Amino acid sequence: AKEQGKNNYQFYSAEMNTRVFERLSLETSLHRAVKNQEFMLHYQPRVDLRSGQICGVEALVRWNHPEMGLVSPAKFIPLAEETGLIVPMGEWVLRTACAQNKAWQDAGLPPLRMAVNLSARQFRQENLIEMVEEILMETGLAPQWLELELTESLVMQEAEKSAAILRDLTDRGIEVAIDDFGTGYSSLSYLKRFPIANLKIDQAFIRDMTRDPDDATLVKTIITMAHGLGMKTIAEGVELAEQIDFLCRHQCEEMQGYYFSRPVTAEELGRLLAEGKTL
Ligand code: C2E
Ligand code: CA
Ligand code: CA
Ligand code: CA
Questions:
Q1: Which end of the chain is more exposed for a tag (fewer CB within 10 A), N or C?
Q2: Predicted TM-score (pTM) of this structure
Q3: For ligand 1, atom 13, which residue shows the shortest CA distance?
Q4: Is the pLDDT of residue 75 over 90?
């Protein structure tokens, strides 16, 4: 038994070493990626459910790793957050997304709202407002065409401070959306205290709402509550026609999901816009 215990120990330790090594090498290459600009953005259209037209896009970061190929954000965002690399990376994302949106407008395409995800570290940066303002100035994008997506747990930490930042952003004409709404445990009372324009209903509820009556109730309740508080709703992860029917029946304003389009390159999005693709 003693022998086996030892083997077990060696087994786990070897496995642990591999994981530590993997993490370390990922961290090293993440540093290099920030320096060498190995990131790129994909854009997923948001569609207005009344008009059926593209009314916005969400910028989603991709890491084009020289050996590993495209690395999913789910893999490197948490590491970037932990190491603080999210700050320079996030600034690059914001600048690139705003510049791209201005370029589409200058090309005469119908104007879109550009949604950008902000991580906790970025939201808590002392100079967040100045950074956003500077990027808008530099790129020439009007603030009404930028929207920032924040998760509810992020906003709930230090609620008073958050409220002040959200008010500042809103006063400058930048809308804020709560991302993955319904997955946090926060008290709902913050919704009426914070200047939040949009709720993005998490894809977990959308996925099952046409089969699971509980999820259907949740989605209907979220939409009704949002409207009562003067907010709009955006459904994420829409993959099926029956989900669109449900959302239209319940007056959800916008949808985003594979049913309409996966996240695509700037070039492909430009094509979708130019051809006037509708639902
Ligand atoms: P998120 O903000 O909730 O973004 C939505 C995710 O759902 C995206 O995954 C998108 O590709 C995926 N998705 C969209 N439509 C569908 C659908 O119909 N079905 C399914 N199954 N999935 C769909 P992605 O691009 O892998 O991004 C994952 C997460 O990484 C994002 O979740 C966001 O939290 C984070 N992320 C991405 N880009 C950035 C960024 O620039 N900054 C920060 N801080 N986080 C980012
Ligand atoms: Ca998002
Ligand atoms: Ca989301
Ligand atoms: Ca998510």
A1: N
A2: 0.92
A3: 237
A4: no
